[in-house]
Design brief:
heterotrimer, A alpha/beta, B alpha+beta, C alpha+beta, A: alpha/beta, six-stranded mixed β-sheet, 7 helices, 28% strand, globular, C: alpha+beta, 13-stranded antiparallel β-sheet, two-stranded antiparallel sheet, 15 strands
Chain lengths: 234, 436, 243
C-alpha cells in the first residue's frame, strides 16, 4: 500500500454523527436510532450485529441513502447525503454503493447477465461493450460466468446471492451494504458468501458493511459492531 | 443489439401474457377502428370535395359580383357578372395562368320546368359545355365520383350542343315529377320537349324551349328534386341576359390556393373592382361541404376521444397491475441508482412497445378489413348526398402516422403518470412491499 | 234546457246569417273587379317599383265567366305573350314556345302584383268569407271580411277585405300569410264605369299593392277602357294558344 492509498485508507468513507431516526408504529413512536455516531474506514470489512429491532437495517438504510434521518449528519466520502436531492442520492447510490439484499431482489424476467448489467444501464457515459466487459468480469469474480444466460429461478439460493453480489460490485462501488445477506441461505452457503464478500473486499479494496444476527459468522470478519437499542456498543 | 431497457420492456410485456394481450387487443381494435373511420371520413371528404369543386362546378375558386352570393337570386340583374366584370376577373387571373387547369362560366336561375301537362320548380345551372366535357373526364371525378359523372354513356354537354343547342339535363327525380320515367334516352321527341319558365333579369316572366337529352345527379339529396343543367346559353336566353353568375377556376394543384386567394383579393381591392372571390371551402359557397365535414370531424373526434380514453384506461389498468406486482422491483431499481424518471421510463417503454406492436397490428387489421369491404363492393350514402357511392375505406398512411403518434403519446403519458407517482414513494417502503 | 237550445240556435242562426252576408258582399264586390259571368275586357297598366327599380307593363284582359285571356301589350319585348286563366289554372305562352307553360297561381313574376291580381277577380269562387267586424269609415259602414282560401293552390292563403255596405265595393285588402301576418296591402279605386243591364256601374280603376314590410316596393295597377265584350270561347282554350 503506497502513502496515498494509506492516507485514503485511514480516512472514513462513512461517518454518522448523532443520527436520530424514529418510526411510528401505530400510535407509538419507536426510536430506531437514538443519537448514533459511527464511522467506517475505507477498505474495512465490518459486521453489524444485534438483536432483531436493534436498528441494524435502519442504520444500513440510512447509510445506503434509502431513507432519511430525523436529525444528525451522514457523511459518505465527506458529502453530507442528508442534504442531497433525490436524483443526487440516486447518482451516489449508483456510483458509490452496492447493495445486497436478504432476498436477493433479482429481476425474475432478466437473465443473470442482464440482472448484473442493470445498474450500468443508467450510465450514459458507458458503451455497451464496456458494460458487457464489466458484467463478464463481475460474473467471473463470483464464479458464475457459465450461468450468464440463466434466469434467477433456475439458480440455487447461493447462486442467486452471488448474482446479487456481482450486481453490487459491477459498478466498482466504494461501499457494499448487505442486509442479512445470508439469512435465506444454509450455513455452508452462508459461509461461502461471506468468504466471497471478504475476498472481493480484499481484491477490490471495497468497504463492506453487512448486518447479520448469525453470531457464527463473526469469526470471519475484521471488525464487529454491535448495536443495541439504536446505539453502537463496540 | 437491442438496448437493455427495450429488452426489459419486452420481457415484462411477456411476463403477464394474458394482461398484455388484453391491452394489445383493446389498442389494436381501437387503432384499426380509428384508421377505418378516418379512411371513411377521408373518402367522404374526397367525394364531397370533388362534388363541390367539379360536379357543382364551384371550382377551387369562384368569382362573383360583390355580395352576389347573398343577393343574386333576389336581384340577378344587379349582381350578375357582366362582360366588364368578367374581363376584370381574367385580368386578375393572368399572373396565375400556369396554375390554372381550366375555367368555367356558370349561371344559375330558378323557375318552372313544364312538360306541357304540369310544371314543377327547378334550380338551373347553366354550364359551359367545354368545361363540362373536361370535368366529366377529369381524373378526380373518375376516381371519387364516377357515379355522379357516368350517366348518359359518356355523353356531355359538348357532344349534346353539337347537334342540339337546347339540350338540357335533368335529374331522374325531377323527370319523374314532370311525368317522364328514366331512362330519358327512350323519350320521343315530343316527350323530350319541355319549357323552362323563369322571371328574367327584367323582372318579367319568360320561357324557352328545351329538350331533355341527359340525366344527372347533383350528389345532394335536397337538390336532386330541383336540379336542371343546361348549356349556359339556354339559361342566359331564359333570363334574358349576357351576364353570368360566377366564374369558376379549377387549379392544377390545390397547394397554391391560399396564396392565390390572397393575391386575387388584393388585386380586386387595389383596382376597386367589385368582385368577390371564394375558395371552395368557404362557408359562402361551400357550406354543405364545410358543415358535412364539420359534422364528420366532430363525430370522428368524439370516437377518437372515446377510443383514446379506452386505450388510456387499458394502459392505466395494465400499468397499475404491473406496478402493484412489481413494487419491490421498483424499490430495487431505485436502490441501484435509478431515478424516478429512469424507473418510469422503463415502464413507459413497456407501454410504448406494446402500443407500437398494437398499432402495427391495428394497421394490418385495418388493411385486411378495408380489402374485405372493397371486395364486398358495399354502397354507402354519404350524408346529404343523393344516391349511393362505393364505400372506399382507404387507410391513409399519413393519418396512420398521426394516429400512431397520438396513441404513443397517450400510452406514454398515461403510463408515466401512473408509474411516476409510485416511484416517489420512500425506497424502503417499496423494498419491503410483499407484492400482489 | 229550452233556454239553452234557444241560445245555441240563435248563435247558429246569427253565424249562418253573417256568413251568408259575407258571401253576398263578396259576390257583389267581384262584379266590380272583373269577376262577372258575362264577357268583359279592359286594359291594365302595371307600374312596379321594386328595390329602386321601376318597370312599366301593360296588358289587355278579356274575361268571361271563370276564364281570362291576358295579352301583354308593353314593353315591346313582351308583346305577344299571353297569360291564360282557365278556371283556377294559369298558362303562359309566347309565340316562340312549342307548348304553353302551366304556372301555379302562387308564382309571382311581376313585382308585388301576382299574376292572379292582373286577371279578373273571383274571390267568391276561391275563398270562403266570414264577417269579421264592421267599422265606420267617413260615415260609411264598412264590412271587414276574412277570406280563407278554399284550396292551397290559391294566390293567397288569407285576405282581410273591406267592403262598403253602401256601394258593395271593395275598398282595401290585406293579404295574409297562413300564420296571419300581413305581407301586402291593397287599396282600390272605382272611377271607371261599365254598363250592366242598361245601368252604369262602377268598375275598378286603380289597385295599389304595397309590400307590408317595404312600402317603397309597390305595384300600381291602372285599369282603363273597361267594356262589355263577348270574346269567342275558343280564345280561352289552352290548345288554341299554339294554333
Amino acid at each position: 500500500m503506497n502513502e496515498a492509498s494509506k492516507r485514503s485508507a485511514d480516512k472514513s468513507i462513512v461517518k454518522l454523527e448523532n443520527v436520530h431516526k424514529s418510526y411510528m408504529l401505530g400510535e407509538t413512536t419507536v426510536n430506531a436510532l437514538s443519537g448514533l455516531s459511527f464511522s467506517l474506514k475505507r477498505g474495512e470489512f465490518i459486521a453489524l450485529i444485534g438483536a432483531s429491532g436493534a436498528g441494524k437495517s435502519t442504520l444500513l438504510n440510512l447509510v445506503g441513502c434509502l431513507d432519511q434521518p430525523d436529525s444528525g449528519k451522514i457523511l459518505i466520502d465527506d458529502v453530507d447525503v442528508t442534504q442531497l436531492s433525490d436524483d443526487e442520492k440516486s447518482d451516489l447510490r449508483n456510483h458509490k454503493i452496492g447493495f445486497i439484499f436478504q432476498s436477493f431482489n433479482l429481476i425474475p424476467v432478466l437473465n443473470v447477465f442482464e440482472n448484473v448489467e442493470l445498474p450500468l444501464m443508467i450510465r450514459k457515459e458507458m458503451s455497451v461493450a464496456e458494460r458487457s466487459e464489466k458484467v463478464r468480469k463481475a460474473l467471473k469474480d463470483v464464479g458464475l460466468e457459465s450461468f450468464h444466460k440463466s434466469l434467477p429461478d433456475k439458480l440455487s439460493g447461493g447462486q442467486r446471492q452471488r448474482v446479487a453480489i456481482a450486481r453490487a460490485i459491477v459498478t466498482d462501488p466504494q461501499l457494499i451494504l448487505a442486509d442479512e445477506p445470508t439469512a435465506n441461505l444454509d450455513s455452508k452457503t452462508a459461509h461461502m458468501i461471506i468468504d466471497l464478500l471478504h475476498e472481493l473486499n480484499l481484491k477490490h479494496s471495497v468497504t463492506c458493511l453487512f448486518c447479520s444476527h448469525d453470531e457464527k459468522l463473526m469469526g470471519r470478519v475484521e471488525r464487529t459492531v454491535r448495536i443495541k437499542d439504536g446505539i453502537i456498543e463496540e | 443489439m437491442i438496448d437493455l431497457s427495450w429488452r426489459i420492456a419486452a420481457k415484462n410485456i411477456l411476463r403477464n401474457k394474458r394482461r398484455s394481450l388484453a391491452t394489445m387487443i383493446a389498442t389494436t381494435v381501437g387503432f384499426a377502428g380509428l384508421v377505418l373511420l378516418s379512411g371513411y371520413i377521408d373518402c367522404v371528404d374526397s367525394i364531397l370535395k370533388t362534388n363541390t369543386i367539379y360536379i357543382k362546378q364551384n371550382g377551387h375558386l369562384s368569382f362573383y359580383k360583390k355580395n352576389a352570393v347573398e343577393n343574386f337570386f333576389s336581384r340577378p340583374a344587379l349582381y350578375a357578372l357582366m362582360s366588364e366584370d368578367q374581363d376584370h376577373v381574367y385580368a386578375a387571373l393572368k399572373p396565375w395562368k400556369n396554375d390554372i387547369e381550366f375555367t368555367a362560366s356558370v349561371i344559375t336561375g330558378m323557375g318552372l320546368i313544364s312538360s306541357g301537362e304540369k310544371s314543377v320548380p327547378f334550380m338551373a345551372t347553366g354550364i359551359d359545355p367545354e368545361a363540362d366535357h373536361v370535368i366529366k373526364k377529369h381524373a378526380a371525378v373518375r376516381k371519387w365520383t364516377p357515379e355522379l359523372a357516368s350517366d348518359n354513356g359518356g355523353a356531355d354537354f359538348k357532344s349534346v350542343v353539337s347537334f342540339d343547342p337546347s339540350g338540357i339535363s335533368i335529374t331522374k327525380s325531377l323527370g319523374e315529377m314532370i311525368g317522364h320515367v328514366p331512362p330519358f334516352n327512350k323519350l320521343t321527341d315530343e316527350q323530350r320537349s319541355v319549357q323552362l319558365a323563369a322571371k328574367n333579369f327584367f323582372g318579367d316572366l319568360n320561357a324557352v324551349n328545351a329538350n331533355i337529352r341527359l340525366s344527372h345527379t347533383t350528389g345532394m339529396a335536397f337538390l336532386d328534386n330541383l336540379s336542371v343543367q343546361a348549356p349556359i346559353s339556354v339559361i342566359q336566353d331564359l333570363l334574358s341576359t349576357d351576364g353570368i353568375t360566377a366564374i369558376s377556376v379549377f387549379l392544377k394543384d390545390e397547394a397554391v390556393l391560399a396564396e392565390m386567394l390572397k393575391d386575387l383579393k388584393q388585386s380586386f381591392k387595389k383596382n376597386n373592382w367589385q368582385i368577390d372571390v371564394y375558395a371552395y371551402n368557404d362557408e359562402a359557397v361551400g357550406s354543405f361541404y364545410l358543415e358535412t365535414m364539420g359534422f364528420l370531424f366532430v363525430m370522428g373526434g368524439s370516437f377518437t376521444l372515446l377510443i383514446l380514453g379506452a386505450v388510456a384506461l387499458s394502459v392505466v389498468n395494465s400499468m397499475t397491475m404491473g406496478i402493484i406486482e412489481r413494487t419491490k422491483e421498483i424499490g430495487t431499481l431505485r436502490a441501484l441508482g435509478f431515478t424516478p424518471r429512469a424507473v418510469t421510463g422503463l415502464f413507459a417503454k413497456e407501454a410504448l412497445l406494446l402500443t407500437i406492436v398494437s398499432t402495427a397490428a391495428g394497421a394490418a387489421l385495418s388493411l385486411v378489413v378495408a380489402a374485405f369491404v372493397d371486395h364486398l363492393d358495399l354502397r354507402v350514402f354519404p350524408p346529404g348526398t343523393a344516391g349511393s357511392v362505393k364505400l372506399w375505406l382507404r387507410p391513409n398512411v399519413e393519418i396512420c402516422g398521426y394516429l400512431t403518434l397520438l396513441f404513443l403519446a397517450i400510452s406514454y403519458g398515461t403510463s408515466f403518470l401512473t408509474v411516476y407517482r409510485k416511484t416517489k414513494i420512500k425506497i424502503i417502503d417499496l423494498l419491503i412491499d410483499a407484492g400482489a | 234546457m229550452t233556454a239553452v237550445k234557444f241560445f245555441l240556435m240563435s248563435i247558429l242562426i246569427s253565424v249562418t246569417a253573417r256568413a251568408d252576408l259575407a258571401t253576398d258582399l263578396l259576390n257583389a264586390s267581384d262584379q266590380n273587379r272583373g269577376g262577372a259571368n258575362r264577357g268583359l275586357s279592359w286594359e291594365v297598366f302595371v307600374q312596379t317599383f321594386e328595390d329602386g327599380e321601376t318597370a312599366n307593363r301593360s296588358f289587355r284582359v278579356k274575361s268571361k265567366g271563370l276564364d281570362a285571356y291576358v295579352e301583354a301589350l308593353a314593353p315591346a319585348r313582351n308583346k305577344g305573350e299571353v297569360y291564360l286563366f282557365n278556371d283556377r289554372n294559369m298558362w303562359f305562352y309566347k309565340p316562340s314556345l312549342k307548348k304553353p307553360v302551366s304556372i301555379s297561381a302562387r308564382q309571382k313574376f311581376s313585382g308585388q302584383a301576382s299574376n292572379g291580381d292582373i286577371a279578373s277577380t273571383n274571390y267568391s269562387r276561391d275563398y270562403a268569407a266570414t264577417l269579421e267586424k264592421t267599422v265606420d269609415m267617413g260615415g260609411d259602414k264598412i264590412y271587414v271580411l276574412m277570406l280563407k282560401a278554399k284550396s292551397n293552390s290559391m294566390t293567397y292563403d288569407q285576405i282581410r277585405y273591406w267592403i262598403s255596405s253602401k256601394s258593395k265595393l271593395a275598398i282595401k285588402a290585406e293579404f295574409l300569410t297562413l300564420q296571419g301576418d300581413v305581407f301586402k296591402r291593397a287599396n282600390f279605386e272605382y272611377k271607371n264605369k261599365i254598363k250592366r243591364d242598361g245601368k252604369a256601374i262602377p268598375f275598378v280603376s286603380q289597385m295599389i299593392i304595397v309590400d307590408a314590410k317595404r312600402a317603397e316596393n309597390k305595384s300600381i295597377m291602372t285599369y282603363k277602357n273597361p267594356k262589355n265584350e263577348n270574346a269567342p270561347d275558343s280564345i280561352f282554350l289552352v290548345n288554341s294558344l299554339t294554333q
